[in-house]
Design a protein that fits this description.
alpha+beta; seven-stranded antiparallel sheet; 9 helices
Length: about 325
């Protein structure tokens, strides 16, 4: 008897009527196809260009103590990205703002990470022509998360500088917030391999660019600088410029070399996911005396204080 004849045939797989999802999700509420859903029920097709080609734009805003922070600026950037990518959604600014408010209110979160996004969608005929795809808008609210934890906010982050190069602006306009993160993720693994908390990667000229989800600032002799080329113009980055203007600190966007960053008096990073966060170690060596600097501490305090200001924040309408 042959080996093939002796081996029992495997039963043929059956076609499931629906997907059973074994994964866990954070507590939150999503908006999708006109419906408000638990996060675990928010799905997209595997044929969506957002998944297949990273063809999407998005923006994130946070809610702190029941108030959105600088929502207007996030909406500006999101709708700017839609226009540049030739995407359309069936909602205007007020409509999107209402959806975001509803996601947070229905979730009940007083501190939330809130995202609005639009994918290219999918073509009903699986056409490779992006003009035939039906663009898809969605939004969600989950508990607030930070790049830095409480201890790192107190003592400072350890950042490693990776030699990975950020996608140049001639290829992807960095003002369009997008999911092209493989360069950033590779940088993160470089950082983890060196026992650092997170990473900074370089621009096409070998200068410091940005990190996964954050911009970077350095302070030297009381003057602040932040990379100018090939980086997302972050809303928290802009907020630092606004705060510096209010208190009379000099700040400029310009090329920041690796040596300049390592030789700074203070370094901090900025993100909607965490605000202004100190960096006290770079590539295993302390920044100055290795302690959180006074300008960083002052800006951190001002940043969170402004969350109470109705000119910069708006209250969530909870039921």
């Amino acid at each position: 008897m042959s080996q093939a004849a002796a081996t029992p045939a495997k039963p043929f797989p059956f076609l499931s009527e629906h997907h059973i999802d074994p994964h866990a999700y954070p507590d939150g509420v999503a908006f999708l196809d006109g419906q408000y859903l638990p996060m675990s029920q928010a799905k997209i097709s595997v044929l969506d260009w957002g998944f297949l080609h990273s063809d999407a734009t998005y923006d994130t805003v946070h809610v702190w103590d029941g108030r959105f922070f600088r929502l207007d600026l996030h909406l500006d950037r999101f709708f700017g990205g839609l226009e540049k990518l030739r995407m359309t959604i069936p909602f205007d600014r007020d409509g999107v703002a209402e959806i975001l408010h509803n996601c947070v209110a229905l979730s009940g979160h007083r501190a939330a990470y809130v995202e609005m996004l639009c994918t290219r969608g999918a073509s009903p005929t699986f056409s490779r022509d992006p003009r035939q795809a039906i663009n898809r808008f969605m939004a969600f609210a989950v508990p607030f998360g930070s790049v830095a934890n409480a201890e790192q906010l107190r003592t400072g982050l350890h950042v490693a500088i990776s030699d990975k190069v950020r996608i140049p602006p001639a290829s992807i306009d960095p003002s369009i917030k997008n999911y092209h993160w493989l360069d950033l993720v590779r940088g993160l693994y470089d950082a983890y391999d060196r026992s650092a908390d997170t990473a900074l990667i370089l621009d096409f000229n070998g200068n410091v660019a940005e990190g996964p989800g954050f911009n970077v600032f350095c302070v030297r002799d009381g003057r602040l600088t932040t990379p100018a080329v090939g980086v997302l113009p972050g809303i928290t980055r802009r907020t630092v410029f606004d705060l510096c203007a209010e208190i009379g600190l000099a700040v400029k966007a310009e090329a920041v070399g690796v040596a300049a960053l390592k030789g700074a008096d203070e370094v901090f990073i900025t993100s909607t996911a965490g605000g202004i966060m100190p960096v006290t170690t770079i590539d295993g060596a302390p920044v100055a005396d290795g302690k959180v600097g006074p300008i960083t501490e002052r800006l951190m305090a001002l940043y969170w204080k402004r969350h109470e200001d109705p000119a910069w924040s708006s209250a969530v309408r909870y039921p």
